[in-house]
Amino acid sequence: MNTVRTVLGDVPPGELGVCDAHDHLFFGSPLLPGQELRDASAARAELAAFREWGGRSVVQWTPYGLGRRAADLPLLSRATGVHVVAATGLHQAAHYAPELPAELRGRPAEMFVNELTEGIGASGVRAGIIKVAGGFHGLDAHARWTMTAAAEAHRATGAPIAVHLELGTAGLDVLDLLCGELDVPPHRVILGHLNRSPDFVVHRQAAEAGAYLAFDGPSRANHATDWRMPDALRALADAGFGDRLLLGGDTTTAGARSVNGGPGLPYLLRRVRPRLELALGSELVERILIENPGRAFAVEWRRD
């Protein structure tokens, strides 16, 4: 039976409800000094605000070493009634200063598998996805190394692989590596940030390959592509790929939280959803927010 692995245990995909398919409750990186998401009370307020707008689940793409605070996630999920999915995996090398911890320079796949099946550190919270990252229009040695480990962990557990695409680029390179060389089934790969590079041809090629396409991080000051997202989603839906689409908010800084005056988690449902309903119709948007995440994140888990 396929289930989604949340921080409170495995649930049927139909229980996810309206899902923010890519966001962060906790996150910290040397690339974003002073903007760390560390405040548990702020995270709880953000989740509560998301639920008030109809949100029922959030997938946190924060991987190893970037302040996941896994032990806090079950407490927040219980307190707010919002399902939370945690991540294992590794981000780009630049997020780990000055370098990766020594214990990860050997076989990161073993760590990924352990966090998916046994739990993240002493928290006992099991991850539900593997997060990795590409580079700008290409894959460096670190990206190939982490994706190779992710593919190994996928084969051992069945877990889906969620990929940060730098400014929305290199999605086809990711699929060539993961699905071509490393034999990961395309429907187990989620390509993130495609809204940041509104290349409709690449979007369609990625969808034709069988991957899930996440449009996440709308209304960010360093992106000028929000207005293209409805057209991109419509083009994919018209081509028959409405079942491949996901939406997320990708809140990565304290200033972006709604409790601090930013868009935050609620923005996806408060502003993005009605805007997309005008362009796509409410039926398709409901499928993107509810049905598609259930398929993308639910697997028949191995090595339980």
UniProtKB/TrEMBL annotation:
PROSITE patterns: PHOSPHOTRIESTERASE_2 (PS51347). The keyword Hydrolase applies. Keywords: Hydrolase, Metal-binding. The modification N6-carboxylysine is found at residue 131. Belongs to the metallo-dependent hydrolases superfamily. Phosphotriesterase family. This is Phosphotriesterase. It comes from Streptomyces kaempferi.
